[in-house]
Design brief:
heterotrimer; B: five-stranded mixed sheet; five-stranded mixed sheet; 15 helices; C: mainly alpha; 2 domains; two-stranded antiparallel ribbon; 14 helices; globular
């Protein structure tokens, strides 16, 4: 493959808070190829959202320390001037947020919120950007876009708001779209519509997408590649078939076990991952998952607590666990 | 004379220098500082000489007024104060600020002429002299001067003078003095005559010709010429009388005409071309224009006058005295000497004994001896802020004043505890308990502590009762009150005991100023006798002697401390003086330096 | 919107009548008798009765109130004093001047004082609040917080007297505060009121700084502000158009209340600077037991608060479309 469109290397993000330093992201690396979708999966607090805010430079520069590399189409974003970031945002990289009700300004019309992005990045006139907003609303499937363009977000239904949000994100034909839990706040039928819409748009426009979710079902139906994150680190990486078909990390197993399958029998209980996610201020040494892991005995507990396991192999389907491949296959049948 | 009265007007004067020429004025606020020590130790030590007031002759009654030293004519003078004048209709005027202002636009039959500093003469104002009594003082005849005119040039006639008195009987008039009206008719004068507006005239005032006016009283009144000098007896033109509305549109007989009046804000005066200085022995009327501004607190007035910058150099104040927070600074600054004025209150202030409860004169005398005058003076701000009078009649407002000191106030101002104890030993109760009621103000709180401490040293237990400010006078005015001692004030209406003693020792009833409930047939008879005297000098001497006799034989009160007002004027204002009788800067000698 | 305003105006009228009635009847609950003040030093009972009659106080209380109320709409005739045209608020007990004329004479000063001070404290308060919010925790923020705290705890009569003494009387940097109508002399209007504006603003600014800062901090954390940034909107536009908009809602609320209160009369400010506005009128009406004047000042003050309440509600709708349409 050619150079990936987005390449993140050794990204480390620390926040200073009153309670101490939060190690939100710790040595994360991943790539997103042009026209593909990467799903980032993990519990809340695993560093998924932080990673993506950092890509857009939306972190608070006062309290955040970042190191590593973020290359977008070859351009380094860490340490880039604000003007560069403002040029890229909404233009080359766009973002969709979880709750469209709070993510849209209640004080401005939908049309204006979409149009102003277009005006900002293309220098179009008010009239042109309004036309473009209507066009975008049509494209995301809003009925009667010519009148709805003057509505305020609270006049839209939840699904329509998310469509409007997508219209706003795509108004400048971005190369990369970061969708942070775009369907979590929506009901199931609307979820499917939104995901279909994203797929359609990707096919039409060739946009790369990062889809952040904690829902492996969404991942299965939508993404090409998967990155499983735990405590600010990647614990498993691979194509969607690899990760969901032959998951290798105990945490991934846990995630899969905790979600309902259409195939599983009704009386088979769902098994949530034991314990609670670790505090990112005091990340456990060694494998951060070890306090919750059921398989430490197979490795020998001291190993898991000692050194931090690296993601291996470096390419393709990799995971960060000391279990041998054979053990993994044995356990997850 | 039976004047049943009480003080409510006092409430108008919170924080300002006294407002009432004659009204009892509350001992609240005012210049009494809470600063305590030192007082006027650094103020120039100049013994205070009370004003002298005599009756002038026909020659004295001729204009023009005696000019003050260095007088300059012309210019505009500015006056700044807190309150506007509620009334401009003379019939409604009792308050000293209003009477004082009215000197500029209204004339009376008689008035006070300044001869020199502290030296005043009662003279004829519109009248050629101070009147001629006849029929044993029951009839008074006045002749109007030639050339006295209204602001439209029409001559002032005896008919106008008569009309002015008649209209004070009208129902719309509820303020202003009542002496002459009662003397002409009856105590209940408003019932006896309803005013001239329905065509009925008062037969007891005669106008044999345009120049002559004759008052016929029902009893002799040797001091009618003084009474007629009150601001309330200034004149109103019959032809321009608009009844109630006249209060808003007075027609000038004085040296100025009101050109603009924005209620509670400003008054502007310009010269009245028909006023002739040659007819007026009282008013100098030196500035061409007057500009009066209201709404300034005494503190701001003081600060502006202290700063003395720009237009404020030509500014003065009628009555805003230096407030406690600036008093020391004003007294200490030697450079202010030429712009500083001070004058003690012309009012009588008393701690009345309630004779219905405190029946033993020995105890009352003991209290007088033990009284901590000096300590109270300190609380009020020291000798520069309060004087220690020893007589019932005020030295500033009593013609023929004779000092006496029965209780050693001058020799032992801090109180003579031994003497008090000795008197108590002879009394019915050597360890009495007295209930002292006081007006609940910060200064009075402190004064009360001082009084309590001093009296308790003499063996007198003091129970202090704080009374609410708004209802203080109502409470102590009840005849059946439960207090033994309380403060109240009274001011004379002209410089004589005749408007003091018969009032404060007059009828006993709820709400009357006889707070000590002194009811002594012999005393009443003696006061009636003096009131009927036709020789005013003899009467004045008799009042003064009675003052001492009352304190000596009855001791119905403790003479209270007397506040001293300190005021400033701008450096380009000349002739500014506090009138010792009115306790206000009078306008007659004011001039502006270029 | 028009229905909303009509409904609120009717409600306001009812509120004002109730306030007037309460003021009126409370006035008579206090022992001080206004007739006594109109009765001078020599005041026998008959004369007091006469004074009471002259002031109309001998009528039954309810009749007095009704006459006062109808007078506002129809005008009234006063014996001896003549006609008082609508809106008739009566004649002052103290100086028998038509109350409405006096109010109209004082209103321009109070309005000028309010507008000027409000402009100063609103702009300055909001600006420092925004800056403090954007510089959270940094020295500028701390300076703004501390100085606003000091400002809030300063008393007008203290700051005002001090400012007068040093700036006006002693060093002649500013002129003696004085009201000149704007239409007559705009420069004189500005320079005459500058000091009271600033001193009044010192006290009020703090509230706006504090409120703006805290709301702004909250707003900056809102999702839609983050969205705006994610769209590539420049920082200034994010602050001014998105965050500030939401911040304005609580600010407009307190601003409305403050304006209403100030129109009712900045009593202490007016006294400190010797300005003749509604505040001085009302305090004088109280000390003089001047019922008609008291009623009028209460009515104007209450009216101002009620009117600004309506304006605030309208402003909510202008700022926030969610209010407009619900």
């Amino acid at each position: 493959m050619s150079n990936p469109f987005l390449s993140v290397r050794d990204l480390t993000v620390d926040f200073h808070t009153e309670d101490g330093v939060v190690h939100a992201v710790d040595g994360l690396s991943f790539d997103v190829e042009k026209g593909t979708t990467l799903g980032i999966v993990g519990e809340s607090g695993s560093g998924k959202s932080v990673t993506n805010l950092t890509v857009l430079g939306l972190h608070n520069p006062e309290t955040t320390k970042i190191s590593g590399e973020i290359r977008l189409d070859g351009e380094e974003l860490i340490g880039a001037p604000r003007s560069t970031m403002e040029r890229l945002r909404g233009n080359k990289v766009a973002m969709i947020f979880q709750d469209p009700l709070t993510a849209l300004s209640p004080y401005h019309t939908i049309g204006r919120q979409i149009g102003e992005v277009y005006r900002k990045h293309t220098g179009a006139s008010r009239g042109e950007s309004r036309k473009r907003a209507i066009e975008m609303l049509t494209r995301v499937g809003i009925p009667q876009p010519k009148t709805r363009v003057d509505d305020y977000p609270h006049q839209f239904s939840g699904g329509m708001r998310q469509r409007a949000m997508i219209a706003m994100a795509l108004v400048c034909d971005p190369d990369l779209l970061i969708a942070d839990e775009p369907t979590t706040a929506l009901d199931v039928t609307v979820q499917a519509q939104i995901l279909d819409l994203l797929k359609d748009l990707q096919e039409q426009m060739g946009t790369s997408i990062i889809l952040i979710t904690h829902d492996l079902g969404v991942v299965a139906s939508t993404v090409h590649n998967v990155l499983v994150m735990y405590a600010g680190r990647a614990v498993e990486r691979g194509t969607v078939t690899e990760v969901l078909g032959e998951p290798r990390h105990p945490y991934t197993w846990g995630l899969l076990a905790s979600m309902p399958h259409l195939t599983s029998s009704v009386d088979m209980p769902l098994k949530p991952v034991r314990g609670t996610p670790p505090s990112l201020i005091n990340v456990p040494p060694g494998c951060p998952f070890h306090p919750r892991c059921d398989y430490m005995d197979l490795v020998g507990g001291e190993v898991c607590k000692g050194e931090r396991p690296e993601l291996s192999p470096h390419r393709g389907h990799g995971d960060a666990c000391y279990l041998t491949l054979a053990q993994k296959r044995e356990i997850h049948k | 004379m039976t004047v049943r009265t009480r003080s409510a007007v006092a409430a108008l004067a919170i924080g300002a220098l006294a407002l009432t020429s004659a009204c009892a004025e509350g001992n609240q606020g005012g210049p009494a500082t809470s600063g305590g020590q030192s007082g006027g130790s650094s103020a120039p030590a100049e013994a205070y000489k009370p004003a002298s007031i005599t009756v002038g002759t026909a020659e004295d009654s001729k204009g023009p007024a005696i000019p003050p030293e260095g007088v300059v004519k012309g210019g505009t003078v500015t006056m700044i104060d807190r309150n506007d004048f509620a009334h401009l209709d003379p019939a409604q005027i009792y308050v000293n600020t209003e009477a004082n202002f009215n000197l500029l636009i209204a004339r009376s039959l008689t008035g006070y002429k300044r001869v020199a500093k502290g030296d005043y003469k009662l003279v004829g104002d519109l009248a050629t002299d101070t009147g001629t009594p006849s029929d044993g003082g029951k009839t008074w005849t006045f002749t109007l001067k030639d050339g006295v005119k209204w602001q439209d040039g029409t001559p002032i006639t005896s008919e106008d003078v008569k009309w002015s008195m008649e209209r004070t009987f009208a129902p719309f008039v509820t303020q202003g003095p009542a002496y002459i009206q009662q003397w002409l008719t009856d105590v209940d004068y408003k019932k006896a005559y309803k005013g001239p507006y329905d065509g009925k005239r008062l037969s007891s005032i005669e106008t044999p010709d345009d120049k002559t006016i004759v008052y016929k009283f029902t009893s002799p009144h040797a001091d009618a010429n003084y009474a007629l000098a009150m601001g309330g007896y200034a004149i109103v033109p019959k032809a321009k009388d608009t009844k109630e509305k006249y209060d808003k549109e007075p027609f000038s007989s004085g040296p100025y005409i009101i050109t603009s009046h924005v209620v509670d804000k400003t008054v502007d005066l310009e010269r009245n071309p028909h006023w002739d200085p040659a007819t007026d022995p009282i008013r100098g009327a030196y500035p061409d224009k007057w500009h009066l501004e209201f709404g300034l607190e005494p503190l701001q007035v003081t600060d502006r006058l202290l700063a003395d910058s720009g237009a404020d150099q030509k500014t003065f104040t009628f009555y805003s005295s230096t407030p406690p927070e600036r008093l020391q600074q004003v007294l200490d600054d030697a450079s202010l000497a030429s712009r500083r004025m001070s004058s003690p209150s012309p009012y009588g202030n008393y701690y009345y004994f309630n004779l219905s409860r405190m029946k033993d004169a020995k105890i009352r005398q003991a209290v007088n001896h033990a009284w901590p005058s000096k300590q109270i003076q300190q609380v009020m701000g020291g000798p520069a802020a309060a004087a220690l009078p020893t007589t019932i009649l005020n030295e500033n407002t009593t013609v023929g004043y004779q000092p006496y000191d029965l209780f050693g106030k001058t020799t032992k101002p801090e109180g003579d505890i031994e003497k008090a104890k000795a008197l108590l030993k002879e009394s019915s109760d050597p360890t009495p308990t007295i209930v002292y009621a006081y007006n609940q103000t910060p200064v009075q709180e402190r004064v009360t502590v001082v009084i309590k401490n001093a009296l308790e040293k003499a063996g007198i237990k003091v129970v202090a009762k704080a009374l609410d400010r708004k209802t203080y006078y109502d409470s102590i005015g009840m005849v059946k009150n439960e207090f033994d001692l309380y403060w109240a004030g009274w001011g004379s209406d002209w410089p004589s005991g005749s408007t003091v003693l018969p009032v404060i020792f007059g009828p006993v009833a709820d709400g009357t100023p006889n707070y000590s409930h002194l009811k002594d047939p012999a005393l009443t008879a003696e006061m009636d006798k003096i009131t009927a005297m036709t020789d005013i000098e003899a009467a004045n001497a008799a009042w003064m002697a009675l003052d001492k006799k009352i304190q000596e034989t009855i001791t119905p009160l403790v003479v209270a401390e007397n506040r001293i007002a300190t005021m400033l004027h701008g450096s380009k204002v000349g002739g500014a003086e506090i009138d010792p009788q009115q306790w206000i800067v009078q306008p007659n000698t004011i001039f502006v330096k270029p | 919107m028009i229905r909303f305003i009509t409904r609120r105006t009717l409600g306001a009228a009812v509120t004002l009548v109730i306030i007037a009635a309460v003021t009126f009847f409370l006035f008579f609950a206090v022992p001080a008798d206004p007739a006594r003040l109109a009765c001078g030093k020599v005041c026998p009972p008959e004369l007091l009765e006469q004074a009471r009659h002259n002031l109309g106080l001998d009528q039954p209380l309810f009749a007095q109130f009704l006459a006062w109320l109808t007078g506002i709409f129809t005008g009234r005739d006063y014996e001896g004093l003549g006609r008082c045209p609508a809106p008739c608020l009566g004649f002052s007990f103290v100086n028998r001047a038509p109350v409405w004329e006096t109010i109209l004479d004082r209103l321009p000063l109070t309005v000028s004082l309010t507008i000027g001070a409000a402009t100063v404290f609103f702009t300055f308060g909001v600006a420092t609040g925004v800056v403090a919010a954007l510089r959270q925790g940094r020295p500028l923020d701390k300076i703004a917080s501390v100085s606003s705290l000091i400002g809030a705890s300063v008393q007008i009569y203290f700051a005002g007297t001090l400012a007068l003494y040093y700036l006006v009387y002693k060093n002649h940097i500013l002129r003696q505060p004085k009201y000149v109508p704007f239409t007559e002399d705009p420069v004189g209007w500005l320079s005459g009121l500058a000091l009271p504006w600033v001193v009044l603003a010192i006290i009020f600014t703090a509230n706006y700084t504090r409120m703006t800062r805290s709301t702004m901090v909250e707003q900056l954390g809102e999702d839609y502000v983050r969205t705006a940034r994610a769209k590539g909107m420049p920082g200034r536009s994010v602050v001014m158009r998105f965050a500030l908009r939401g911040t304005m809602i609580p600010i407009v609320t307190i601003f409305g209340v403050d304006l209403g209160t100030l129109i009712g009369g900045a009593i202490i400010t007016e006294q400190t600077f010797g300005l003749q506005g509604l505040g001085q009128l009302s305090i004088r009406a109280v000390t003089n037991s001047d019922l008609p004047m008291l009623m009028a000042t209460v009515l104007v003050a209450a009216g101002a608060i009620v009117v600004f309440n309506i304006i605030v509600d309208v402003m909510y709708a202008v700022i926030d479309p969610r209010v407009r349409l619900s």
